[in-house]
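COMPLEX REQUEST
Ligand: magnesium ion
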Amino acid sequence: MSNVIIVGTQWGDEGKGKIVDWLSEKADLVVRFQGGHNAGHTLVIDGNVFKLSLLPSGIVRENTVVLIGNGVVIDPFHLIKEIKQLEEKNININPDNLIVSDSAFLILPIHQIVDEIREKNNGSKKIGTTGRGIGPAYEDKVGRRGLRICDFLNKDEFESNMKKIYDFHNIWLCAMGEEKQDYKDAFNKLWNIGKTIIKFIQPSWLIINNFKTSKANILFEGAQGTFLDVDHGTYPYVTSSNTIASQAGIGSGMGPTAMNYALGITKAYTTRVGSGPFPTEDNGDDGNKLGTKGHEFGTVTGRQRRCGWFDAILVKQAVALSSINGIAFTKLDVLDGFKEIKICVGYEMESKKIDYLPSSSVQQAKVKPIYEIMKGWKGSIAGIQNIEDLPYEAKLYIRRVEELIQCKIILISTSPERSDTIVLENPFDVN
Ligand code: GDP
Ligand code: IMO
Ligand code: MG
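STATUS: Structure written out below.
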């Protein structure tokens, strides 16, 4: 039995979906513990592409059970849409292989409206959210007025609480000169969709505990990335949940002493979607080339991702924040064809050298990267599955990254395909 947590170490889109899918071979249960359908996780299996936002990536494996934990915010309309999309691809989804936590909070239609209108009003200071209502849904959760999946069990209570939430948000919408939202129509639609979801619901902690008791392997699938964490990220340009490894237990119902391994997913360069500081962002030819070769367009919104060189300072910080045991290093093949590869090894801020990202967004914006330059390799490494087959320069790059981030690289991904993965250590075999 072993429990492995997967987290992104940058600003999301590191390739978590591919690695979760690959590792699911050894997992009996795969659990999402935060975020919602703002995530976009891509799996490629023998040329078939699956894009998942809310369902844990283990769902495509025949004998794997997946659980949407209590820490996730759920848009029920999206959940049903995603289930249907997968069923069209012959993935069988039923209450035996999908469990939805009864205490996960709901994203209501008004949350999405508030998200979009806020972004519009923020002008140049907008966060660049996915517009899916994630922030307002989490706000209602901590504001103790949110609706949960288990509220689908009591119609009158659901309706009266939903009205209260609409009243709350309508005050702001009307003050901003926006249209007042009627809760009644939204309630009827939501209640109907709730009927199709009820069959999947169970207490998350109980499921986890049952799997734990039967000595199963559990894989916790993080969404977003460390620097989108609401406490530890580039606030306020973050998402509204905790994305680091400690959240896995809170968002599912398991204590920290039961966790065995934290696996960080790290892209061989850096990308970011949405606004906010990005010290190694490259708006020139190199950034363009990384974006084109890496197909850096958002899975959820289709937005072009901002691109830049690898930032070892940032990833070293992520390793510390999640006490990461090993790294899966992804998209190394995208660096094919670069004569020189830059690594950020320190920051300069107000003429001083620093080796961590400061907390203040004003200071973060002032940080300038200090680069070390390494030699690129000739030819293509795409699809390589054995470490011996990597060119010398690629191996040197990996070693230097390990040194700088103070963590070992245990998996290397060389293409979007499940099988194109170099394995040095399997986290499930470590204990
Ligand atoms: P996630 O949000 O962390 O799951 O990552 P996304 O799925 O949003 O973005 C990663 C993209 O890179 C997807 O299109 C993957 O298919 C692709 N990808 C994953 N690993 C590799 C790799 O090693 N090489 C290449 N070229 N693409 C990869
Ligand atoms: P995966 O799991 C990359 C970003 C948005 C925005 C900020 C807040 O695929 O790595 P939100 O809608 O969450 O309120 O937006 O967070 N963001 C992501 N960026 N990958 C993601 O998920 C993201 N989920 C949210 O672009 O900057
Ligand atoms: Mg993604």
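REMARKS: The two ends are 8 Å apart (CA to CA). The chain has twelve helices and 20 strands.
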